[in-house]
Amino acid sequence: xxxxxxxxxxxxxxxxxxxxxxxxxxxxxxxxxxxxxxxxxxxxxxxxxxxxxxxxxxxxxxxxxxxxxxxxxxxxxxxxxxxxxxxxxxxxxxxxxxxxxxxxxxxxxxxxxxxxxxxxxxxxxxxxxxxxxxxxxxxxxxxxxxxxxxxxxxxxxxxxxxxxxxxxxxxxxxxxxxxxxxxxxxxxxxxxxxxxxxxxxxxxxxxxxxxxxxxxxxxxxxxxxxxxxxxxxxxxxxxxxxxxxxxxxxxxxxxxxxxxxxxxxxxxxxxxxxxxxxxxxxxxxxxxxxxxxxxxxxxxxxxxxxxxxxxxxxxxxxxxxxxxxxxxxxxxxxxxxxxxxxxxxxxxxxxxxxxxxxxxxxxxxxxxxxxxxxxxxxxxxxxxxxxxxxxxxxxxxxxxxxxxxxxxxxxxxxxxxxxxxxxxxxxxxxxxxxxxxxxxxxxxxxxxxxxxxxxxxxxxxxxxxxxxxxxxxxxxxxxxxxxxxxxxxxxxxxxxxxxxxxxxxxxxxxxxxxx
Length: 515
Description:
The protein is mainly β. It has helices at 2-11, 126-129, 156-161, 259-263, 417-428, 430-435, 450-459, 473-479, 507-513, and strands at 70-75, 78-90, 93-104, 107-116, 132-136, 142-144, 166-178, 181-196, 199-209, 217-228, 231-245, 273-281, 286-289, 292-298, 302-310, 321-326, 332-334, 336-343, 346-354, 365-371, 406-412, 438-444, 466-468, 487-491, 497-500.
């Protein structure tokens, strides 16, 4: 047992390690997009690129170029290709398919994300805002990973698609040497501070941008310091644009899928829980990720799963973890506890899945859930704060925010009579409210299909702008302080929330009080 603890303790310090598995030859005929020989990126101005710099880039993306554009970056011995591989309209709003290919150690990992063409100016997190995320990895099969894990579980994709979120400031212009030539670049720097249990991560970004780089970024540099108690580990990395072109084609096929299929969370965590480790193939023996280390043993009797974690973050009074298995039909099975142990800073928990419940060779995916710490907290009132960004909470629509109108938002459940009555009454007052300068939006806040919602809207002749929550419904309602349904939120012309949780009969009173 002590030897096992030491091994897992060592694994605990390894970040973003790939599972120990053997990639299979898929015989795929995927091809990397080839640049047009008659076209030079740096000899023309791209259409659709804003002249005004927004803020620090999100990893390697600061803007979206014309569809079909691709850019290849060099990162030591590895390469990253980012490409725009298609457009899509969702609820009347433009979205773009972005594909990221990581070439590393002779292997390729591919991610495909559906993101809004309107990149928000601050607090951008493309991984959280993506309506759909697909992955083609070492298992040589494409799968939907939408909403399946925290951003850190995307490994290298995190570095590619995240950036600083604090202390952001401009740098002095600098000449950057690349294989494409010398470029006078504007620069941004900033920090991203994160904590996993007792492990602290401090990342400093320097991002160099140029108007002729397809996605805005010519080079990105990162200095990462990780601190575990008194042990500090520092690393540096950089990634530079080396090749560009057009004619990009997607290597993950999603063309025949509906928006429901694209955004479905097939391996969603249980209510009140979230993924600490993304469900993935079960063909590994040991794995390490930020803050956790795992070992898995299979025999004729059971699948045994051992989890190591910083003792300050797990166990009594700390974060609760549990492994979850899925079979080929995506049915979930929670592994039973077999006790645990501890050694100084490391806690150890053992779980098992009996073969009578599910034989080990029938386990298709396995992941680790952690108890959502919000489950034990009270939601925070929004009154007096800026109206949350609709994109950040993952709706399937992006309502416009006219500067000259106030907002009345109604969270409702079409399957509940009080909610239906509220929406019906709002619909009847739509013209009057519009004349008062009030934009009304209805948001379906329980799990129904888009077809069901559309039918109900048509049958009720509802003319209000309507949408539905995409993603973790409970977490979204928590972040919007929704305590019951229906739930009304009133925001003024400056997008500041002035009232929430009131009855529709009180609307006139609330409007008069907040003129």
